[in-house]
Amino acid sequence: MLDIGPVRLSVFDLLTLIPPRGVEQLVQSGFKVPSDLERGWLSDTVIEAFLWQLCSDHRNVFAADASMCTVVQLNASTRRLWHGQSFTDIDKIIIPMNKNGGHWTMLALDRVAKVRYYFDSLNKTGARQLKTTSPNGIAGLIQKLSSTADIKTGWKSTQWPCIQPSHVTQLDRYNCGVFVCFFARCISEGVSIPAQTCDIVAEREKLTAQIFGFCYDDIEQRNTGVCKVCRDDDGEDWLGCDACGQFFHASCLDVDYVECLAKFFRCPC
C-alpha cells in the first residue's frame, strides 16, 4: 500500500502506528480491525521504514533489518547479509533487537567513539557497562550481533565496551518500538537522550507523520517554497495542502493534478 524506499507497508502495518485508544475509536466507528493486531505495537516493517528514512537523512548511519536479530539467534547463514553495502563512510550502525519476540530493544555501534550502546526502554537501573563475556542471554546476543557486523565491516566492535546509557523509561506495555525509533533518531542526530521525560505520544505522532510523507517534521522551520517530497522548487504541478500549508508536486505524490485542484486537498499525513 505504501512504499518507503525498499520497504512496503501494508494496511496492517499502518494500523500499528495508531495508539490503542485510537484503534478502539476505529472499532467503535465500525472499522474492522484484524484480530491479530497487537494494539500500539509497531510492526517490524514500520520500524524498518523509519530507519530507512533516517539513514537517508544521515548518510553516515546504517541500519540493519529487523530480521537480523532472528537470523543471528538461529545461527542461520549471513553470507548475503549487507551484500554490496560499502561501509567506508559509515560511522554508526543501528541494530533493532527483539530477542524473545515480545519486546524491542536496540544496539548501536559507534566506530568513531569505539563504543557499543545498548538501549532497553524498560531498563530502570541507570547507566552501566554491560559484561559481554557471557555467551548466554542478552550479553551473548549483543556479542554475536557485533561479531556478525565486524565480519561485514572490518570493524572490531566485539572489543569495544558496551554501555547501557541512562535514559527515559517506558511506562506502558506497547511503546517499545516507538522508543527504539526515538533512540535511533537521537543516536543518528548526535543529540543527548533525555534521562527523565519524553513525550512518547508526540514521538509516535512524529513517527507517523514521517512515514506519511514528512508532513509535520519541520513545522517550526517550514520551507513552503519547495516541494515537501523532492525539496525542489521547479515544476508546474503544485498542490497546497489545506491542512498543513505545505506544498507538493502532484507528480511526487502520484495524484491527479487537475482533480486535486478542484477539491479540498490534504497531503498523505
UniProtKB/TrEMBL annotation:
Gene3D superfamilies: Adenoviral Proteinase, Chain A, Zinc/RING finger domain, C3HC4 (zinc finger)
Domain Ubiquitin-like protease family profile stretches: 7-187
GO terms for MF: cysteine-type peptidase activity
CDD domains assigned: PHD_SF
Protease listed as a keyword: yes
Keyword Hydrolase: yes
UniProt record, GO biological process: proteolysis
SUPFAM superfamilies per UniProt: Cysteine proteinases (SSF54001), FYVE/PHD zinc finger (SSF57903)
Pfam families: Peptidase_C48
Record's keyword terms, sorted: Hydrolase, Protease
Family: Belongs to the peptidase C48 family.
Protein name: Ubiquitin-like protease family profile domain-containing protein
